[in-house]
Amino acid sequence: MNPTHLHIILVHVPVAALLFGALSLKIGTFWKSRPAQILGYATIFGGILAAFASGATGEEAEEALEALGGFSHELIHAHEEAAEGFMFGIWSLAAVALIGFLLLLRNHAKATLFVWIVLICASIASLGGVRVGYLGGQISHLEAYDQTEAVPAATHAEGHNED
Q1: Mind listing the pLDDT tens digit for each residue in 120-155?
Q2: Are 51 and 134 in contact (CB under 8 A)?
Q3: Domain extents for the chain?
Q4: pTM, entire model
Q5: Are 79 and 53 within 8 A, CB to CB?
Q6: Would you give the DSSP letter of residue 101?
Q7: What is the chain's mean pLDDT, rounded?
Q8: What own/partner pairs with CB < 8 Å and gap ≥ 24 does 112-119 have?
Q9: Alpha-carbon dihedral of residues 11, 132, 75, 66, nearest 10 degrees?
């Protein structure tokens, strides 16, 4: 298995983990269940780690596509730009989630406030991850997109590389 395979596998994990973690955190807050909140934070941290791993394998996946040829440079670039924005959201979420988790462990009065901040940040980051995935899917899954809207995708279908 090479970095491109890992990238393709890992890219799905961050969004799913952030959403599941946020749900667990929200349920834990409403039910006042510390184990559910800890599970939520742990799952969010897992999603954050998966996002870092996805980002770390992205450059090699891009190089592999460019070596193959026939893929739209514009689509690859749009995906890469969206991923960079997503990583900014992930770093922000990591900072807020770490603070929230430490406050939870210390039974601090502000722990509940940070749960809500983490939920908002995780939701925003998840939306960013969905956008990254949507743009990544356009690179090689043309069957899922309207070809009349995506002009760069049409060049991919013809087998031209737009460098």
Answers
A1: 999 999 999 999 999 998 987 777 677 655 444 444
A2: no
A3: 3-154
A4: 0.84
A5: no
A6: H
A7: 89
A8: 112/29, 115/25, 115/26, 115/29, 115/37, 116/29, 118/22, 118/25, 118/41, 118/44, 118/93, 119/22, 119/25, 119/26
A9: -30
